[in-house]
Sequence to fold (448 residues):
Amino acid sequence: MKRRIFVYMCLVALCAAISTLLISWASFYMAGESWITLAKIWPYSLLSVFLGIMLSYFAAQMLTRRIVTPLNQLPIDKPGNTMVYEELSPLLERITRQSRDIHEQMQTLRQKQREFAVITENMSEGFLVIGKNAEILSYNKSVLLQLGAEIADFAEKSVFALNRSETFRKAVEHALSGRKSELTMEKNGRFYSLIASPVREEGEVVGAVLLVLDVTERRERENLRREFTTNVSHELKTPLTSISGFAEIMQSGLVRQEDIARFAGKIYDEAQRLITLVGDIIKLSQLDENSVPFERQPVELAELAEKVIRHLEDTAASKSVTFYRTGTPVTVMGVPNILEEMIFNLCDNAVKYNREKGSVTVTTGQNEHGVFLSVADTGIGIPPSQQDRVFERFYRAEKSHSKEIDGTGLGLSIVKHGAAFHRASVSLESTEGIGTTVTITWPPAAEK
Fold:
C-alpha cells in the first residue's frame, strides 16, 4: 500500500513538472520568442524539471510515510478504538464489527471442539470418524483398546491399520458404500458390536461414523436368561408331570383303596415343591427389582441363626449332622424374613451336601471388614472350576447328587441377591472332600 501511494504521488509530481515546462515553452512561443531563445533556456528548463522531480520525490516520501504509518499502527483486533482519519471511521467500524464476529465465531468453534474432545475421550464406547477414502479423521482411546490397536497417532492413516478382521472390514466398506450396518466381532474372548453409518453431503457419501460397543456382558445376560428359561421350564414341568401322572392313575380307577392315601401324598408333595419353586422365583424377582414389601429394622443375627438351627435340627439328625454356633452377637439393619431365608438356605445346603456324622458351624461376629455371618460344613466340597457358578439360578455343582437331593436350585441365588439387597457381599471357600464355607459380610456403611 505504501509503495502504491508513493508511485501515484511521483506520477502526479512528474505530470505537474512536465505540464509546467510545456506551459512555459508555449508562453515563450506565443510571446514571439525565436527557437534560438528557446534552445538557450532548454537546459535550465530541464534542470528545473529535474529539481522539481527530486523535490516531488522527497515530498512524496514524507507525505506517504505520514499517511501510511498511522494506518500500519492500527491494532488489528480493535481498529475502531484508534481514530486516525475521520473519513475512515465508517470503514474502521465495519472492520471492527467483522473482527468481533470472527473472534466470537472462533471462540464458539474452539469451545465446541473442546466439548467434542471431552465427550469422545470419556466415552466407554469406541468412536471413529472415517473419510471417504477410508482414512481416519478422528478417534478416541476406547476404540484403540477395543480393536486391539496400540496407542499411537493414527490420524489420516488407513482405518484398516486399526483392525484387519473380516468383520471390521465389512462394517467399514458397507458404511462407505452408503449402507448402515451392525455386526458383531469377537476379540480376545470379548464381543463387540460394530455400528457403522454413512455420512452424506448433498446425497453423496463423504465419510462414515463407527461406534464400537462392548456387548460381552449383554450376551452373557442373554445366555443366562435363555438358560434360566430352559431350567425353570424343566423345574416346573417335572412336578406338574408327576401330579398329572398320579392324578391320571387315580382317575382311571387302577389304584387300590389302600394306595389312594399314598398317591394323594405324592401329589401333595409335588404340589408343595411347585409352590416352593414359584415362591423362590417370586422372591428373586422382588430382590432383583428392589421391591421387597417389608421395612428394614435392626436384626440380631445370632438369634436368627439359632432359630434356623432349631428348625433344621430334625433334618440334620436324620443324617447324623451336628450344628454348632459360635461367635458374638451382632446386629444389622435388614428385612428379617429375607435374612432368615438367606441363613436357612446356607444351613440347609450345608446339611444336604454334608457327609454322615459331619458338622455345620454357624459363626457371627465382627472383624476389620465389618459384621459377618459364616456357615461352614464338613461336606463334599465344590470343584474349583464350578465355584464361580454356584450362585447362578438352578445351578448345582454336584450333578451326580442333584436328583438325590431335594431343592429348587435357587437357594444360593437367593443368598446372593439377598446380600446385594442388604448392601452386603458373599464369599465362598471350598475344598473337595473337606468342606465349604460361605461368608456374608456387611461393611460398616451397610450396618446402619
